[in-house]
Design goal:
Blueprint lengths: L1 H18 L3 E9 L15 E3 L3 E4 L4 E9 L2 H9 L5 E6 L5 E8 L2 E7 L15 E5 L7 E8 L4 E9 H36 L2 H20 L2 H6 L4 H28 L5 H20 L6 H24 L4 H25 L5 H4 L9 H79 L4 H36 L5 E4 H10 L7 E5 L4 E4 L1 H18 L6 E16 L2 E15 L30 H11 L3 E7 L2 E9 L1
Parallel strand pairs: 12-14
Antiparallel strand pairs: 1-2, 1-4, 3-10, 4-9, 5-8, 5-10, 6-7, 6-9, 11-13, 14-15, 15-17, 16-17
Helix pairs in contact: 1-2, 3-4, 3-11, 4-6, 4-11, 6-7, 6-8, 7-8, 8-9, 9-11, 11-12, 12-15, 13-14, 14-15
Length: 640
């Protein structure tokens, strides 16, 4: 039993050792003039290297020589367990052209793949190109790779058994699928966040994330598989185009962070220039400028980062947003700079490939930018909520102040009512006493003059008290929305008001008919009393005062020519003459307390016409006036 277990353990040990017995020695040669071919390349001075080959930006042809071998014991064992045939995996998928040369039966066996020469279906459905090795490892073999690329030249190579190819590719696809799924999740979460908050910054981040998703699908071959190799123009340029599009979206995203705050004119102008250059960079994708286009794009991104530092310094940002933007800008700068140096082979590959793939790595751009964007939006929401709370608190304070003011206003209104009542009673007594004295002292001129002065003064005080009372009552009337309407004979109401004047025969009255309207008697009386008293007060002596009543019919709506709904309105006009030197100011005539300089000696406070306008507004009417030479006409229109 122990012997059987020992044999099994020994067999497993031999098998595991055999799987590790494929040795690869790697060499490269930089053909600066691209003058070599497969017949002259064997004598070239190749340089050995380990791990991945990274030559950065180059337009020259790079030759890679691979010496693949194993020992005799491992070879026999491998053949027995069916390890062969083998597959050479060469990455990355973005390499434009890879020619594979293998010496097989004294002739060169040639295969060609690359971004510009992909075939469908692909042997390996992940991020590398795969070549079938025809030779078995009975003896060492030499393979040459002729590589050209307009992107960063970064070459990884490995030899695997075809029986293990499915497992290896599946692992790679799983990793790529996780990256793609994570990018999609970020995009979906961003969309949900946008629906909830309607933030422009979030929607631009969604577009940024979409560009990353499209970049992933183009660099892992998924886009090529979707088109089944039928759209070579799209698939050949897609990785570069979406990489440049991602850089453009990054520029727009950065601008969106600062656009809601007061930025300098220099920032705005330079940012517009960057927009234009990024669009030009996108157009250059299809003009085959090679790596120069990529260098131009990297330069633009470095410029955007520099501009961001300037904006952070010169823009008045809330502290939390400023620190978030600064941290994000520093992180992105480090990612861009270190990734670029890594691609130029300044870093040891084995130590950093868990963190950085290359300077365009999608894993490093979407996540940190997303963290910055969501933190900024969160801070903006908190700031907005804080302002909303302040607004609500201010509104509550204002509501309390308004209630206090309303209480004070109510008290003042009550005081006005009390004062007007208390003043009017003594005035009535004084007027009655003056009338009695005047009747019983007709022969005493001095007493008669004094009585007339008393009567004039009491009339003046009474006029002021009435105006104050009417103004206060109209304010309350408007606030309470009283709607106590009744049918009123307008002609009769007008006649009663005119009859109160001793010289009522000085009025000329023109009316088409007798008007009965549905309105408020108090408001109509207030309007007529003030307009008529105003005309009497400022009329040129012995000049007639003209009053005209008409009605206007207007169609409210019409469904046919024969069916009209008519609305009848009453038009009241009163005209009096005035001295030209007393022409009122047209911009102030309806303002409260306005009086012409020549009439300060006359009774009144200058609120009569303002009271008229207030009353007509309550009745939903309209009033205007016109001046012709030495006469003024007031005209108001109300519904009947």
């Amino acid at each position: 039993m122990y012997r059987l277990i020992s044999i099994l353990l020994f067999s497993l040990l031999l098998f595991s050792q055999a799987n590790g017995q494929v040795h690869i020695k790697k060499y490269y040669y930089l053909d600066s003039n691209s003058s070599r071919d497969i017949h002259t390349i064997e004598d070239a001075p190749f340089v050995p290297y380990e791990s991945d080959l990274q030559k950065g930006f180059t337009s020259n042809t790079v030759w890679v020589k691979l010496e693949i071998s194993t020992n005799v014991f491992a070879n026999s064992l491998l053949n027995e367990v069916g390890t062969y045939p083998l597959t050479l995996r060469v990455g990355s998928l973005t390499l434009d052209s890879i020619k594979y040369y293998e010496k097989y039966r004294d002739s060169w066996y040639v295969q060609q793949l690359g971004d510009q020469h992909m075939v469908y279906p692909r042997l390996c459905a992940d991020e590398v190109h795969c070549f079938n090795i025809k030779s078995h490892l009975e003896k060492p073999i030499i393979i040459f790779l002729e590589i050209r690329s307009k992107n960063i030249l970064q070459v990884s190579t490995e030899v695997v058994a075809q029986k293990d190819l499915g497992r290896i590719v599946a692992n790679k696809i799983r990793v790529g699928s996780i990256a793609l799924a994570f990018a999609l999740c970020l995009c979906i979460v961003s969309l949900i966040f946008f629906v909830l908050e309607k933030s422009r910054l979030i929607i631009f981040y969604v577009f940024f994330q979409l560009s990353i998703i499209l970049y992933i699908t183009s660099t892992n071959g998924l886009l090529f598989d979707i088109f089944e190799g039928q759209q070579p123009f799209v698939t050949n340029y897609s990785s570069e185009f979406f990489f440049y599009l991602r850089a453009l979206m990054f520029c727009i995203l950065c601008n969106e962070i600062f656009i809601n705050y007061k930025t300098t004119e220099i920032y705005k102008k330079i940012n517009h220039i960057f927009y234009s250059l990024f669009f030009i960079n996108l157009a250059f994708t299809f003009l085959n400028f090679g790596y120069k286009n990529t260098v131009f794009n990297l330069t633009l991104q470095a410029g955007v980062l520099t501009l961001n530092f300037y904006a952070i310094r010169t823009t008045q940002l809330p502290n939390k947003i400023k620190y978030s933007a600064l941290a994000g800008n520093i992180a992105y700068s480090l990612i861009l700079f270190t990734g670029f140096l890594y691609s130029l082979n300044f870093f040891n590959v084995d130590k950093f490939n868990f963190l950085i793939h290359d300077f365009r790595d999608y894993r490093l751009h979407g996540i940190p930018i997303g963290i910055v964007v969501f933190s900024i939006v969160t801070f903006q929401i908190l700031e907005k909520n804080k302002k909303n709370i302040e607004i609500v608190n201010e509104a509550n304070e204002n509501r309390i102040k308004i209630n206090l003011l309303n209480d004070k206003l109510t008290e003042r209104e009550a005081l006005v009512d009390l004062l007007t009542h208390e003043i009017k009673n003594p005035l009535s007594t004084i007027n009655y006493a003056a009338s009695f004295i005047q009747k019983n002292n007709d022969q005493n001129t001095e007493i008669s003059d004094r009585v007339r002065k008393i009567t004039h003064s009491t009339a003046r005080i009474d006029s002021v008290v009435n105006q104050v009372y009417l103004s206060s009552r109209l304010d309350r009337f408007e606030q309470s929305n009283e709607n106590q309407h009744e049918y009123i004979n307008f002609n009769e109401l007008l006649s009663n008001i005119i009859s109160d004047y001793e010289f009522s025969n000085a009025f000329t009255f023109n009316s088409q008919s007798s008007f009965k309207i549905h309105s408020n008697r108090f408001l109509l009386s207030t309007i007529l009393n003030n307009l008529i008293s105003n005309a009497v007060k400022y009329n040129v002596p012995e000049s007639p005062i003209s009053i005209t009543l008409t009605h206007i019919d207007s169609a409210l709506n019409s469904q046919s020519n024969s069916d009209l709904e008519m609305k009848q309105t009453l038009c009241f006009e009163i005209t009096n003459k005035f001295d030209i030197k007393n022409t009122p100011d047209p911009d102030k005539i309806f303002k409260r307390y306005y009086r012409h300089d020549n009439f300060f000696s006359k009774p009144g406070m200058g609120i009569g016409l303002n009271i008229v306008k207030m009353a007509i507004n309550i009745l939903n009417g309209n009033i205007n006036y016109s001046i012709h030479s030495d006469s003024i006409t007031f005209k108001f229109v109300i519904a009947t």
